[in-house]
Every structure is written in structure tokens, then in C-alpha cells.
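Review form for a predicted model. The reviewer records the input and the model, then writes brief findings.
Reviewer: anonymous (R2)
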Amino acid sequence: MMVFAGFALLRPWWLLVLPALGLFFYLTKPGGGALTGWARAADESLLAAMAARGGVSGGKEVFLPAILALVVGIFALSGPALRVHDQHSLRNLDATLIVMDLSTDVTDSARLRAAATVASEVIDHAGTRQTGLVLYAGDAYLASALSDDRSGIDPLLFALDSQTVPDAGVRPDRALKLAQKLLSEAHILRGDIVLISGGGGLNGDGTRQLAAALHASGHRLDTIFVSGAGIDRSDDTLRAAALASIAGAGGGLAATVAAPENVLEALSNQVALNLENSAISGLGWLDLGRFLLAVAAIPLLLGFRRAIS
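Model under review:
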């Protein structure tokens, strides 16, 4: 499928027939009219009589309607389609869920603003998918349910502070458990979970196992590290490596708030990939090909016209 804003070609490989068709007509076009070799094979007086009765027409008159019909027919087979906006039955197929660390690792004003900014960029790159927000520290809470309407998430992100999640500690495993539950209950087929974290609470294997379970369910876990949460630079390096390991287990990418481009680009590309590879991708489009096939028959009707003498 090829998509151009609200227009798409559902079966674009049919367009490959056009250059082959052009080559065919170039090699077989009549040299001196529609009769070509018949002038050498048939009696000259018979051909003259047929021409006098209007049974023979010039090459261009014969070929142009046929060429036009074939071109329109091939374009029709390529599946030109318009987007159908009433697609509520498909809205639960894909989602982007932001899981954001609000422990003391992140709630310093500068780090928290950087985390909120990158979370806002994640929303901007989520395309048409539903988005949601989970916050965690010592426990995890749903801050914004999965929805097509994301207008309320941005103001919420920049209103967060150290008191938003009252439970002390840092439990990313509980946040991923909640994310797993939300995606399951919403019947999400493909979820992109973006964990924005200071890298705390990753000492055991529980979080890594949850990341692997999410990946096995068809979801993807990306991580974005909020630097400066460690005691020193070496501690930050260890935390970033631990967070990258979680991303690897979740089948995703690891980035930092200073350089989140690889994760954002992957999120942007995911919309097109899902659309192209999904078996139900055509359900959201009105295929106009059947109507164009009827239009393609009109030039052929010109070949049946008869001159009135």
C-alpha cells in the first residue's frame, strides 16, 4: 500500500504493468495504418471494398480507445482509495503508552522538565494511534487512559511534580505490569511502550522479564534515560546500561532525553509499517477501483460505433 495523506493505492504493484504496456504498443504499433500486414496477405480489391464500406479505420482511431481503456483499467486495478473517517471499530488496534518515572531520581525541576518535554515529543510522534500515560514511583497509577484525544496529556505533563505520586520508592516493574494490563484490557494488538526513567529500581530480573513478556505479546518497549539521576557519572553509566538492557528485552531502542531521536523516528515509522503490513489495512479505505473499471469500458464502446451513411 502507498499512502499520500487522505489518498492511497491499495495494490500499487499493478502500476508496473504500465511501462510493459508502453513497450508492447511501441513494438506492435501499425506502421502505415490499421491494416499493416493485411495489405500483403489479402486481395487488394477486397480491402478497398471494406475500406469503402467503413469497415477499416486508421490506426490511431483503433488504438487510442484501447490504450486509454487499458491505462484506466490498470490504474483501477492498482486500487485508488480514499480514507474512510468512520473507523471507530479499528481504533483499538495500535497504541502508544508513556510510562514515566516520578521518583526522586527524576523530580528535580530540571530533570522533570526534560522528561516532560521528551514525553510531549513522544505524543507528537505517535501519529493516529491512541495514547495514554502511566506515572510511577513506589507504585504505579494511570494518569491518562488510552484515547484518540491527547489534548489533555500535554498540560498534565508540565504540571507534574514530586508530590504527584505519593508513594516513595521506585518500582518500574509495577508500572510495566499496569501497562501490560491496560494494553490487554483495551485489546491492543500492537502497543509501543515508552519508559522514561532515571534508571532506578532495575537491580532484579523482574522488570526485564516483564519487558520480554510484553515483547512476546506483540508489543515493543523503548526506553529514554533521564541523565543526572545517579550519584556520579559512573553511576549514571550503569543506570543507562541497565535501562538499555530493558529496552533490548522489550524489542525496542534505548535513548536519552538529550538525544531521543532514534526512539522518536521509530515511533513515526511504526504508523506506516503497521498500515502496510496489516492484513486489515484496506478496511479503512474506500476502494474506487471498481468504479474506474466501469469508466475504462467507455472508450471500448467507441470501437463498436458505426458510421451512418
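Findings: Residues 272-277 have pLDDT under 50 and may be disordered.
Further findings: The radius of gyration is 31 Å.
Recommendation: see findings above.
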